[in-house]
Amino acid sequence: MKPTRTPKSNRDPRQLAASSLTLALSRWERENGSQRVRQSRAFDFSPLRTAFSPLPAGEGWGEGEQLEVRQSSPIAEGPNHSTRRQFVQATATATAFASLATPVLAQPAGKSLGSKTLKTDVLVCGGGCAGIAAALAAARRSAKVMLVEKAPFAGGIITCVGLPYFDGIANIKDNRIVVRGIALELLSKSGVCKPDATHTAKHNPTIGNSFEFKLLLDRLIREQRDRITVLFNSFVCGVQSNGGRIRSVQIANKDGLVNVEANTVIDCTGDADVAAWAGAPFEQNAEVQPLTLHFRIGNVKRVGNLSQNCRAALAKAQAAGELPFYYGPGVMFLYHESEVYIHGIRVPANPTDAADLSRAEMQGRADAWAMFQAWRREVPGFEQSYFIEAYPWIGVRESRRLIGQYVLNEDDLMKARRFDDAIATGCWYLDLHPNKTVIGSANDFDPKKVQPEPYDIPYRSLLPQQIENLLVAGRCHSATRGAHASTRVTVTAMAMGEAAGTAAAMAVTAKKSAQEIGGVKVRDALKASGAGPFTDA
Question: With 50 as the cut, is the pLDDT of residue 396 above it?
Answer without folding.
Answer: yes
